[in-house]
Amino acid sequence: MSFDPYTAGGGRTLEKYPCDLKAGDRLRLRQELPVLDDQGTEIRAPWPPGSIWTVIFGVPHQPEVVWLQKPDGDLHTWDETVVEAFDLLARAPEVGSRVELIGLPDDVPTMPEESRVVFEYCLGRSYLVAEVDPHGLVVLDVSSDVDEKFGTIGNEIHVEAELLANAQRDSPRG
Questions:
Q1: Predicted confidence band at 2 (pLDDT cuts at 50, 70, 90)?
Q2: Fewer CB atoms near the end CB (10 Å): N or C, the chain?
Q3: What is the pLDDT of residue 1?
Q4: What is 26-90's CATH topology?
């Protein structure tokens, strides 16, 4: 397998950056960001303040280069000044921690019914964090109560960090 840091996964395995950001963190852009080519010419409309970007895994031999996924899904790199340009919207939970799903991804209403009902069932329930995927989404292992209920095996859901909260002791068990 060849090393291509510009593809999802692509040799990027660094989870935590020296600037204290980590894969799965969600960031909100503080002010308008022009989109320029190599010559400094604006090539499209600027990114608006408030747009949400996701921290993704970095390259271990370049920990100072912070990898981000832009709202359009394209990848972007930044240096440690990323913390000056963005506010932390949501911190990705630790793998193995228990979290509660407190909101649904925006695309749930357009999902096939078999996926939509799983997400809706999981809302308000708590689950273990299995991992952060290459796109910076938090992976929840929901198989403990979804598999039997829906007659499937090995269910997991991928959600943005801001849709999660630390699980309370009295929240439904997942």
A1: very low
A2: N
A3: 40
A4: SH3 type barrels. (2.30.30)
